[in-house]
Amino acid sequence: QVQLEESGGGLVQAGGSLRLSCSASGSIFAVNTMGWYRQTPGKQRELVANIATGVTGATINYADSVKGRFTISRDKNTVYLQMSSLKPEDTGVYYCYIRIFSNMYWGQGTQVTVSS
C-alpha cells in the first residue's frame, strides 16, 4: 500500500504565492508519476502538473492554465507545487497523487482559496 500526506494550501490574495507538498510512503516503485489534480467549483477534476520519473530521467507536464505560474519539483518521494501569480480561478481542492504502473493513489486533498 501507498500513503500520501499533503501539506500547504490556505488562503491567499490574487497575485500571491503558495507552496504545496506531498510525501509518499509505503511500497513505491522507482518508476512512477507524482503530481497534482485540482477540483474547482463547477468543473471536473483536472490535472495541474505531474512529474514522471523513469530510467531515462524525469518528464514534467503542466496544464496550459498554469504554465509559467506553477512549478512542480520532486525530491525522491516528495513532490512540491510552487504556485505563483495565483488567480481566483485557481481556487479549489488540490489532490496529490502517485501512479505506479496502473495503480493510482490519492492524498486527502488540500484547499487553496485565492481571493480577488
Notable traits:
116 residues; single chain; four-stranded antiparallel β-sheet; 0% helix; 63% strand; mainly beta; seven-stranded mixed β-sheet
Secondary structure layout plus pairing:
Blueprint: E1 2-7, E2 10-13, E3 18-26, E4 32-39, E5 46-54, E6 57-62, E7 70-75, E8 78-83, E9 92-100, E10 103-106, E11 110-115
Parallel strand pairs: 2-11
Antiparallel strand pairs: 1-3, 3-8, 4-5, 4-9, 5-6, 7-8, 9-10, 9-11
Explained architecture:
The structure is a single chain. By secondary structure, this protein is mainly β. It is 0% helix and 63% strand. The chain contains no helices and eleven strands. It has strands spanning 2-7, 10-13, 18-26, 32-39, 46-54, 57-62, 70-75, 78-83, 92-100, 103-106, 110-115. Strands 2, 4, 5, 6, 9, 10 and 11 form a seven-stranded mixed β-sheet that branches. β5 and β6 (57-62) form a beta hairpin. It is globular. The protein starts with a strand and ends with a strand. 28% of the residues are buried. The model has no long low-confidence stretch (mean pLDDT 94).
